[in-house]
Amino acid sequence: MTVRVAMWSGPRNISTAMMRSFGARADTVVVDEPLYAHYLAATGLEHPGREEILASQPVRWQEATEALLAPVPAAVFYQKHMTHHLLPQVGREWLGAVRNAFLIRDPAYVVASYAKVRGEPTLADLGYPQQVEIFRAYGGPVVDAADVLRDPAGTLERLCGALGIGWDPGMLAWPAGRRDTDGVWAPHWYAAVEASTGFAAYDPRPADVPPRLRWLVEAATPLYTELSAHSL
After folding, report:
1. What is the pLDDT of residues 175-209, one digit of tens each?
2. Which ranges form a coiled coil (predicted)?
């Protein structure tokens, strides 16, 4: 029976590197942000490559989530999700048929990074409320990006154990380059990951949060703290 892993991450995290890590397993197939097209269609947002994204994925959330539960030729089906793509109208019932997991990051670092690409992010843009909603309803293992970068082997081994899949040291390295499974938006966002062959080294420097966005860090911190208390 296939283990379906729904990994929920906010933006400005190591979610694509984590997808590379799972994609390096011999027993795993991956899918990249399968709710992105629905998110763009529903919100009307103009993201880079919008038309290509809408053409590449199901726009109806019902069709997108049905595909996440369909048979796949692998023991593990890793689903990389951006938590803010889980809009209120998207049904939640399918979440009970997957093994939910959560990739979190200190909000100060998320906000500092996000501010460089979007001037005024909101709390919903960062995905913390949605992560907490899913965690409270369905549970699942939580890993902090800082822990993954400080100790990739130990953190990933604990994650695999919590998901009920075998630990594969091959998850620590992967060939550089693009993947057929990468979303069509890869040319706009994945340059660093395409150049990588493993997880980057942990950077301990403090986050440089713009003063105008410190309120957002304060708003997100209690949600992050709730999830962080369950980190592996």
Report:
1. 999 999 999 999 998 999 999 999 999 999 999 99
2. none
* All residues at 6 or more sequence positions from 114 whose CB lies less than 8 Å from its CB, including other chains: 11, 12, 121, 125, 126
| Half-sphere CA count of 213, side-chain side, radius 13 A | 23
Sheet holding 3-9, edge to edge: 28-32, 76-82, 3-9, 99-104, 142-144
> Looking at residue 25, what is its pLDDT?
98
Give the SS3 label for residue 124.
helix
Q: Strand locations in 132-220, DSSP E?
A: 142-144
pLDDT at 180 (0 to 100):
97
Long-range Cβ pairs for the range 131-136 (8 Å, 24+): 131/8, 131/10, 131/83, 131/102, 131/104, 131/223, 131/227, 132/223, 132/226, 132/227, 134/8, 134/83, 134/86, 134/95, 134/100, 134/102, 135/100, 135/102, 135/226, 135/227, 135/230
Q: What is the CA radius of gyration of the chain?
A: 17
**Stretch 151-166: mean pLDDT:** 99
Domains and their CATH numbers in the chain: 3-228 (3.40.50.300)
Q: Is the pLDDT of residue 229 over 90?
A: yes
Maximum separation of any 2 CA atoms in the chain, in Å: 50
